[in-house]
Design goal:
Elements lengths: L3 E4 L2 E4 L4 E7 L1 H6 L1 E7 L6 E6 L6 E3 L7 E6 L4 E6 L8 E8 L13 E2 L3 E6 L1
Parallel strand pairs: 2-11
Antiparallel strand pairs: 1-3, 3-8, 4-5, 4-9, 5-6, 7-8, 9-10, 9-11
Length: 124
């Protein structure tokens, strides 16, 4: 059973920073790549960033490069999303996903396992 638990969301002002965390079991962390997606009310779930299982390779969607960074802590079985200079349009529920994803990382359907999400609200 794969269990992912996100934390770190909250209400912040534009320009602030947040770091989201996703905790996974050791077996999940060793087996799967990890990703962050976000979903605003009434909109589809969209790709934010991913970190591969077996390499140090990371991927951040172009529109968020320079502000968002994904990282893995293999010793703690954690994946993080550092979000800087937040904007009101970053408001969404942020989800951690995992899976054996080698292609189509941008497609949420490629990721079989999800956490419950953590809410990020950015006020102007």
């Amino acid at each position: 059973q794969v269990r992912l638990v996100e934390s770190g969301g909250g209400l912040v002002q534009a320009g602030d920073s947040l770091r989201l965390s996703c905790a996974a079991s050791r077996s999940t962390f060793e087996r799967y790549s990890m990703a962050w997606f976000r979903q605003a009310p009434g909109k589809e779930r969209t790709f934010v960033a991913a970190a591969s299982r077996s390499t140090d390779r990371t991927l951040v969607t172009d529109s968020l490069k320079g502000r968002f960074t994904i990282s893995r802590d293999n010793a703690k079985n954690m994946v993080y999303l550092q979000m800087n200079n937040l904007r009101p349009e970053d408001t969404a529920t942020y989800y951690c996903g995992s899976g054996s994803v080698t292609a189509n990382a941008y497609n949420p359907r490629a990721w079989p396992y999800w956490g419950q999400g953590t809410q990020v609200t950015v006020s102007s």
